[in-house]
Each structure stands twice: as C-alpha cells, then as structure tokens.
Design goal:
By secondary structure, the protein is mainly α. Helix content is 73%, strand content 0%. The chain is built from nine helices and no strands. The protein starts with a helix and ends with a helix.
Length: 196
Amino acid sequence: MNSMSHVVRALTKSPVLWGILASIAFFAPFEMGLIQSKFEQRYFAGHPVEYTETVMFFIGLAALAIRSIGIALQYQGLSQGLLPAIPRGGQPVTECESLLLRLKRLPGRRQEEYLIRRLRDGLEYVWRRGSPEALDDQLKFLSDQDATRMHADYGLMRLVIWAIPILGFLGTVIGITIAIANLAPDALEKSLPEVT
C-alpha cells in the first residue's frame, strides 16, 4: 500500500501528466470542429511544431502551478506548532531523540517540506555530535543543499523556457520553406501575393 500511495503521489505531482491533460482539453475543441477560426488554427493547430509548443507551454504552466500549490501548503504549515516551546535555559541534547520522534509522527506528505527536513537534519546533527557546537555552520550547509535542490527542481521549467523559442524559430524556418515552395516561377505575379 505504501508503494502504491507513493506512485499515486508521484503522478499527482507530475507536470508532464497535467500538462498533457491540459493540452488534450485545449485541443479537443479544435479536433471536434468547435473552433474553426483561422487565427486559432494558424497559431495553435496548423503544424506539428505548433502542437509541440503548445504542449510544452502547458507542461511548464503545470510545473509552475504544482510548485505554487506546494509552496502554499508549506506556508500554511508554518502556523502549526511543530515542536514544543523551548524551556528557560534551553534543552539538553538528550531531548533530540524525542523531538525527532515528534517530527517523524507528522503525516507523510509533510516529511519533505523544507522546514521539517531542516529541523530533522539539524536535530540529527546535534544528536550525533552530542553537542550544539558548530550547528550554525551545519545549518548554512543545509541551506545550501536546499538551494541546490530547489534549483534542480526548476530544471523542467528551464528546459521549456529554452525549447519554446527554438521551436518558434524552427516553425518560422518551416513556414518560409513552405512559402518558397509555393512560388511558381512562371506565374510569379500571381503566386507572390499568396506567399506573402
């Protein structure tokens, strides 16, 4: 059951899946003949490159939407009390184990939140060392790790941002090629307005 819920969670967070579903919903009216405007046909459904660009746009949009929902849920979780208040004089290192157990009891979806992960890693560091010394340096290291992880999470968005202009250029080249192919040298005056 745990692996099945992991697969379901991965599918619900898949920008490719949601982007393809949004693309299907977007192109369905074109395929059913409900949209027959030349403008929409020309810019969205006139060539396979246009289909590809539109699908990539929806995948990028889905990635941003999923990321926004995740950030909103993590922000909402900040208001919940995760650990008990620190008593006067601080807490002994021996409390780390009970605090870690308290964090472990949180729901599975919360275990990968940045705050929970940072608290868990910080507590494990103090527990292993038996002292809070050099915790500041460890927290800076954990912050760098999270920044690297966050940068990697936007890899799909960087790919979409890179690919859409390249596909646009490819579509322009294909359009120019088709236009030149439609030129008739013997009837240049008649074919030139059509090409233009």
